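Let us work through a complete example step by step.
Step 1: write down the sequence.
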Amino acid sequence: MTGDTVGADDDWPAAGPEAMRDRLADYVGALHRAYLGQAELLAPAERAAMPLVGAAQVTVAVAATRELHLVATTDPLPPPRGPEVEIGDHEAGVSWTVRFFDATILPELGLLAAEDPPAVRRVLGIAEVVYHLSVSPGGGLSGHHAQHAGVALANRHAAAVRDGQAIRHAFPGREALVDEFVVAERVGLRHAARLLAAEIAPSLSAAELAGDAEELRRALLTAGRSRR
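Step 2: predict the structure and record it as tokens.
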């Protein structure tokens, strides 16, 4: 999920700062409503384990580098000061605030490469990530795009929740490592996820460890089941 990118939209340059902030807040709201609507289709226990469903209060930091990064977190942020702006909203028991950061507020953002989501999170000081999406400048901030992104994000989270629960069950005594693996995978720390997977299941081959997130979860499940 981390670093997922929404496509281009030619009317971006025409929007002023206030209009762009409103547009981004609307995008986040539509994304969250689509996510929460999709989560309603799940079994109750699975729905409760979904990262956005289980977070009563979320801050979505919109960080402008060469791309726009939407970083949702349950970490507390200090109140806005100076030129900082926040916009609040809520749905189905989940409240969120959208905060906006650019190089005038955090100069370090102006030095980052667009393709480095972990560096964006370090500049923001965010550790606990619910999701991290990126939007290319000019990037498709329509309600349709938001709904598609929200449903896709919910489906990925649901699959990861189910796999994480199964992996925990397959490796009794290693639940803490599995929990760390699940978090590392969710926030896009691929190297950390692979190191944790290798510690959880030393039998995994280099090829299995090199797979994408879904393939790595499948490999862990297979290795866990073979231990029985």
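Step 3: interpret the result. Confidence is low (pLDDT under 50) at residues 6-13.
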